[in-house]
Every structure is written in structure tokens, then in C-alpha cells.
Amino acid sequence: MTRDATTPDLADRVRLFLTAANRRDLETIMSIQAPDAVYDLSQRGLGIFEGASAIRGFLEDYLAAFEDIEWEFEEMLALDNRVVLLVVRQQGRPVGVRARVSQREAWVQHYSADGMLSRTSSYLDIDEGRAAANRLAASGSWP
């Protein structure tokens, strides 16, 4: 069963992540990642990044590709004490391009018992992301 409100600690953790991302504050982003965290961005064609070093490298490269970039969440739903579904709108201007780009996506985040971000998966299809989050919350483990 889903809840519309998140627990304060988990909601604070998600807000910290998004605020740090919008500031390009890699130190804060990395400080809330589990050492063996995984970013599964394969649904977006970007690959899978395992471990702090790989995630940091991806984030550095991704952020460097934009003159400016911002993420705003439209929806945040805690499915249990560790699984969060975010519907996010990403907007930015790539380096050397005058036009802005925008993308709406679902993020499924899994947090460890101690509040560290252990896995993030991104889905361009919001309903697919919602279904993945519900499966994860129901099973208690990643597929």
C-alpha cells in the first residue's frame, strides 16, 4: 500500500539530494551515497554505474555537458521506509547550445536502513517507473 506523505527523514534526504544536484554540489551528493551504490540509467540509454567512483565520474561528466541544469520534482511518494518514487522534470541548456532542453522522468530510489542512497533507477516512462517502485516496495529487494 502506498502513502502520499514521506517520513520526515526520508523526505529530508530526498530534498537534500535534489538541492545538492541543483547546486552541482558533488560533495553533498556523494556524502549520502552508499559506497556500493548503483545508478541504473539503462532505461535512458546511459548505462549502469556501480560504486562511488563510477557514480561520481558519471555525475561530473553529465553536469559538465550543461551550461545550466535544474531538477524539480513534481511528485515524491514514499512506498515504504526505504523506497521513494520521484517524478522529476529536468531542464537545462547543453554546453554550446542556445536552446534549452527538458525531460520528464521517474526516479526510483532505494535507501539503506541508515539513510544512505543505495540505488537509483531512472525511467522515461513514468508508469514503468511507478510499477518498478511498487514491485520493489512489495518485494523488499531489487530485481
| Approximate helicity band | 25-40%
Distance between the termini: 19 Å
As a whole number of angstroms, the C-alpha radius of gyration is 14 Å
Return the structural class: alpha+beta
Biggest β-sheet description: 6 strands, mixed
Number of domains: 1
Strand content: 35-45%
Strand order in the largest sheet:
2-1-6-5-4-3
- Outline the low-pLDDT stretches: 1-8
Order of helices and strands: HHEEHEEEEH
Discrete helix count: 4
Q: Specify the CATH class.
A: Alpha Beta
The average pLDDT value, as a whole number, equals: 90
CATH topology, anyone?
Nuclear Transport Factor 2, Chain: A
Secondary structure tally: strands:
6
- What coarse outline follows from CA principal-axis ratios? globular
What does this entry show, briefly?
It is built from four helices and six strands. The chain has helices at residues 8-23, 26-31, 52-64, 126-139, and strands spanning 33-40, 48-50, 66-78, 83-94, 101-111, 117-123.
Task: Please describe what this structure looks like.
- The structure is a single chain.
- The protein is α+β, with helices and mostly antiparallel strands and 143 residues long.
- The protein has one domain: Nuclear Transport Factor 2, Chain: A, CATH 3.10.450.50.
- The protein has helices spanning 8-23, 26-31, 52-64, 126-139; strands at residues 33-40, 48-50, 66-78, 83-94, 101-111, 117-123.
- The longest helix has 16 residues, at 8-23.
- The model is unreliable at 1-8 (pLDDT under 50).
